[in-house]
Amino acid sequence: MNSKIKTAFESFKDMTVLIIGDAMIDAYVYGKVNRMSPEAPVPVVDVDHKENRLGGAANVARNVKSMGAKPILCTTIGKDFPGEQFLELMRIDELDNSGIVMSRSRTTTVKTRIISGGRQIARVDEEIIEPLSRNDENVLVNNIQQLMESQKVAAIIFEDYDKGSISVGLIQRIVELAKTKNIPTSVDPKKERFLKYNGVTLFKPNFKELEEGLDLKIQKNHEGISEADEKLRSQLGHEISLITLSEKGVFVSTHTEKTTYPAHVRNISDVSGAGDTVIAVASLCLAADLPPSIIAQIANLAGGLVCEETGVVSINKENLLAESLSVL
Length: 328
Description:
The protein is α/β, with parallel strands linked by helices. The strands form two sheets. The chain has a nine-stranded mixed beta sheet with strand order 5-4-1-8-9-10-11-12-13, with helices on both faces. It starts with a helix and ends with a helix. 38% of the residues lie in helices and 27% in strands.
C-alpha cells in the first residue's frame, strides 16, 4: 500500500480542483490579558499584533495547494474593502482568482478571533448569510461551468458554511455536469442543505452535523453511527460516507462495508480549520483512486496534524506523507 500512497501523493501535482462554497477572511487579534474591564465583567486584551488569513472554502483551496494540486476557488464575495483584502490574500498565496465573483449586494465574510495565551477567548463575525440573488447565482454557476469546460478538473469540492453561496439549484446543476464528465464530487456540509447533495461521490459531515442534518440523537459508537449512516445513504444515494468523530477518529462507509478508525494521540492546540483540511485531503485521495479505507485514514491523520497548530493552518504534504507511510 505504501507504493500506492506515494504514487497518489505524486499525482496531486497534475490535478486541478474546483472548490465551490462560502469563503471568508479569518482575522486574528493576538494579545495579552492582564486585567478585567471596569465597564463590564470581561477581559481587556492588550493587542500585540493582527493577522488576516484566507478561511472557509478559501482555506480548503490553501490546503489543496499545499498538497501540490492546483485549486480554483469558486465563490461570491462582496465588492467592498474586505473583498479587496481577500483578493490580495489570494495573490499573496498565489491562488487562481478566475472563479471569484464580486457583488455589490454582498458583504465579504470576516471572522475575527481574539487570541490570548495561545487560546481563543472570543470571536466577532461580520457577514451576510442570505442566499445569493438570482443574478449573482447565475453568474457564479456560469463561471463554474466555463471552468469545467476549459480546465481538466480532477475533483469538485462543495464547502458549505451556510453563508449563502451554495443553493440547491447550483448543487443540482454542477453535480449533474460533473457526472457527465466523470468528475468525483465531495461535500463538507452544513445543516441548511444537508440532504440536498443527492448523488455526490463523497459526503463528509462531522458528528454534530450528522445529528443536526438528520435531526437525530445518535449514539457515538460504531453501531449508532452505522444506523444513522443507513438513513443518510437512503436519502442521498452517495458513494462514500466520511464522518469525522473528533477524539474518536473517523467512520467511513461504502455500499458494502463500514469501518471506524480511531484517532491518533495528539497535542491538540486548535481545531479551527481541521474540517477544511480533511475534505481537501480526502478529495485529492479520491481523485487519485485510493480505496475509501485509505482515504479515511489519511484524511484523519491530516486533520489531527493541523490541530496541533494554533489558528487555521494548511497541511504540510511532506509531514502527512511521512506519517501516512509510517502508520498505514
